[in-house]
Amino acid sequence: MIHKGKVVGFVCKFCALLNFDLGPAPEAAIHIEVVELPCAGRIDSRAVLTAFEHGADAVFVMGCPTHECMNINGSRRAEQRLLRVWEILGSVGLNRNRLVFYPVSGTEGPHLSQIARELEERVVQLGPNPLRLRRQGKELQEQ
Amino acid sequence: MIIAEQKPLAEIAESVQDVAKVLVVGCGGCVTVCLSGGENEAEVLASALRIKRGIDGIAGEVGQVTVERQCDPEYVAKLDTAVDGIDAVVSLACGVGVQFLAERYSKTVVVPAQNTKFAGGTVEHGVWEERCGLCGECVLAATGGICPIIRCSKSLLNGPCGGSAQGYCEVGKDIPCAWVMIYERLKKLGREASLCEIAAVKDWSKSRDGGPRKIVREDLRL
Amino acid sequence: MSECMTESRLEKLFAAGEFVVTSEIGPLKSASAHNIIKHTEETKQYCHGFNLTDNQSAIVRLSSIAAAVHVLQHGGNPIMQMTCRDRNRLAMQSDLLGAYSLGVRNVLCLSGDHQSFGNHPTAKNVYDIDSIQLIAMVKKMRDEKKMLSGEEMKIEPRFYIGAVANPFGDPIELRVMRLAKKVRAGAQFIQTQAIFDVEKFSHWMELVCAAGIDGQVNIMAGVLPIKSVRALTYMKENVAGMSIPDVLIERMRNAENQQAEGIAITVEIIQQLRQIKGIKGVHIMPVAWESVLPEIVSKAGLLPREKAAE
């Protein structure tokens, strides 16, 4: 059984769900769990940290491009709020690149399948969440 | 309100790295309003500590709970069950709350997660500034509602000093000169002539210089 | 101002109508007074008194009181400076008593630069009383023979009291009002910040004279000899409360010999300041250039007639 990378995505309903059907191919090395938000601006730092605590290898937040947010400021606020979480990640021993914000337009821009490929590369490159490795008693390789 | 700022996470983690069971306690008072130590922040800190300790291989658990205020013994008492069996409490309250917890749970290690900074207020969302010097003898009536003790870097009572320039304090261009502000405010009120009087020396014994302070209201004692 | 209240030589000179010339010596950041002794010996005949700074710019230096005593021991006339930043009212009164007992007769009272400027920014700042309250306290000790607490002293320190003024601060009417407050508190002589913009300074003096302050206190205009255009530009950009006209910067930049030009400019400024109503003297601050004092004093025609020793 090939071990799959765990990815949690917090996804704004306006843009992202249009692409939802085009998820990662079954043979991809990652599994994406999606949490729908009414707006990316609703992202809560607690939720992001909980995802990492439960072993997520990467977390992404997807929202409208900041100048096109359907709720005007939601997308911008989301990215701003994530600044604090990136800081925390750096302080607790997790590579900041495990958290990423994707601005995605509903009408154009990358399809979820492209993002899934990018995420797969990211997870393969960064390796599993060191917390998961620690729990599995394996050697840590986090940079 | 009392404004506090979280210590660096590394410092907080280090203060409890030798113990297994940790309880993060948030406070629903001032630190909730200044967004540094309330329920949300307690959950974030607890989660961050769990991740870090997990990666660093420190055994144990980190829980979190928040009470209305840590500076009132009746509210602190509600923590008895949660604190039972805990090795270290990480308090997100200001210095006052930390001490009240430490006093009640004298057999448990209690550490602060915040640096208590000043008595101040919100000037815009996300920005807080110091306003009150806690001097124990308020002179705001004479200075048009602007505190010379804390807003003047030298606590002058007959300011401004020679370093004030273009309305700014010599210490930095982000600090407005309190005495220029006082003068302008009194001018608006038509009371600037009062500044010609020499303000007498301050009785600092009413401030922290006199020793720890206390207020007793006999009419309110049970 | 004809009746002298103290033994201060400065007070006597002002009372006699002399144009008083004072200078300044900056103590070193070490336990040695050799520069103080040297400058006193070499330049005491070119001025009526030397200011000894008090941890200027919040940088620890040999104390003003000690420096003043070294000046006295070598025949000079010291003006001790006392800031409010480092001492509370107990230490201030104690130091005033001690300084007077050692022969110091002049004290300049000022707030003092904030410690964040200096070499010990993490120190606790004192500012127990401000400069105006300090002036009033020195006057109370002298005229009422009482400490600030009201307790009586058998032998009171009889200081000649000085203060500083910034003619380029704003708002200008607030500054003039504060100068009046210093005089009412007991200031008897004033030394201003360094002047480069004589026109702006004249305007301030007009307001001061209109308020009648010139008749109540002896105002000395401050000048600061500069030896390079770099020093002048640095001051323009970094020192609060300075007003430096661009024409002076141009003169320095275009000069063949910047030092000589700097001296010439200082001499011109002094001569212009002497013409201003209400100016009773000049305070020359040769920062890191104490040796230039004799040349400036002689070129400006300021040579004091009496010997320096009291």
Walk me through what this model shows.
- The complex is a heterotrimer of chains A (143), B (222) and C (310).
- Chain A is an alpha/beta fold.
- Chain A has 4 helices and 4 strands, in the order ββαβαβαα.
- Chain A has helices at 45-53, 74-92, 112-126, 130-135; strands at residues 5-12, 30-37, 58-63, 99-103.
- Chain A is globular and about 45 Å long.
- The two termini of chain A are 27 Å apart.
- Chain B is built from 8 helices and 9 strands.
- The radius of gyration of chain B is 22 Å and the shape is elongated.
- Chain B folds into 2 domains: 2-118, Response regulator (Rossmann fold); 133-210, no CATH class.
- In chain C, strand 2, helix 3 and strand 3 (78-83) form a beta-alpha-beta unit.
- The mean pLDDT of chain C is 94.
- Chain C is 40% helix and 15% strand.
- The interface between B and C is medium-sized, with 28 and 37 residues.
Give keywords:
heterotrimer, A: alpha/beta, Rossmann fold, 4 helices, 4 strands, globular, C: alpha/beta, TIM Barrel, 8-stranded parallel beta barrel
Total of DSSP H or I helical runs spanning 4+ residues of chain A: 4
Low-confidence stretches of chain B: none
Strand order of the largest sheet of chain A: 2-1-3-4
Q: What's the Cα radius of gyration of chain B?
A: 22 Å
| Largest inter-chain contact set | B-C, 28 and 37 residues
Give a nutshell description of this structure:
Chain B has 222 residues and is of the alpha/beta class. Chain B has helices at 9-15, 30-33, 39-56, 73-76, 80-83, 95-104, 148-151, 178-188, and strands at residues 2-6, 21-27, 61-67, 88-91, 109-112, 114-124, 127-132, 168-169, 172-176.
How is the secondary structure organized here?
The complex is a heterotrimer of chains A (143), B (222) and C (310).
Chain A lengths: L4 E8 L17 E8 L7 H9 L4 E6 L10 H19 L6 E5 L8 H15 L3 H6 L8
Parallel strand pairs in A: 1-2, 1-3, 3-4
Chain B lengths: L1 E5 L2 H7 L5 E7 L2 H4 L5 H18 L4 E7 L5 H4 L3 H4 L4 E4 L3 H10 L4 E4 L1 E11 L2 E6 L15 H4 L16 E2 L2 E5 L1 H11 L34
Parallel strand pairs in B: 2-3, 2-4, 4-5
Antiparallel strand pairs in B: 1-6, 6-7, 8-9
Chain C lengths: L8 H7 L4 E6 L8 H10 L5 E4 L11 H10 L4 E6 L5 H13 L4 E5 L20 H14 L15 E6 L6 H14 L3 E6 L3 H13 L7 E6 L5 H10 L7 H9 L3 H17 L4 E6 L8 H7 L11
Parallel strand pairs in C: 1-2, 1-8, 2-3, 3-4, 4-5, 5-6, 6-7, 7-8
